[in-house]
Amino acid sequence: MYSEVEQLIRKRDNFLRLANDLEKKQAINYQALEDYKSYLEQNIRIPTLGYVRQKFPTKGFHAGDMIENFFSSKFEAVLPIKKIIIKVYLPFDLQQESIAKLSVNGKCVELPVKNMGQYQASVYTKIARGDELKIQIISHHALSGKERNINEDKRKIAFVLSYIEFVGDA
User: Fold this and answer.
1) E strands, the chain, in order
2) What is the number of helices (H) and of strands (E) in the chain?
3) Which residue has the higher pLDDT, 100 or 113?
4) pTM of the model
């Protein structure tokens, strides 16, 4: 009788050891996926036109070209840049009135966003070849999918980026 109990205890211990090992492997895999997801989110390419190279990391930009209420990215000018145009749109499920501030190397302009549709702002600047430029967009109004009762997404989205155009000295 005593040997049967010992055998059952060994089986239980082996089962617990296997379950623990499996849980450790799954935790390592989960952490690797989280790290990769974070890497992808920080290194996602922004839709741009013109003579620049995007520098990483980027903040506040997500797949689907969605911009949070704070967006920041750096670029390197491949050729001289004289004007930057940022075009955004507000889809039907993000209808909200807002004024966003667009900053290019500290030079600010306002981007009023009223209803569903396309909006753009331009900044005239003088950026030499090889210089770095930092673009920030700050919106004081943003909603998450959860707040709009669409889904469980908690990211606060201000609008969707169509593109950033870097116009050269041609």
Assistant:
1) 48-50, 52-62, 66-77, 81-90, 98-104, 107-113, 117-127, 132-139, 157-168
2) 1, 9
3) 100
4) 0.74
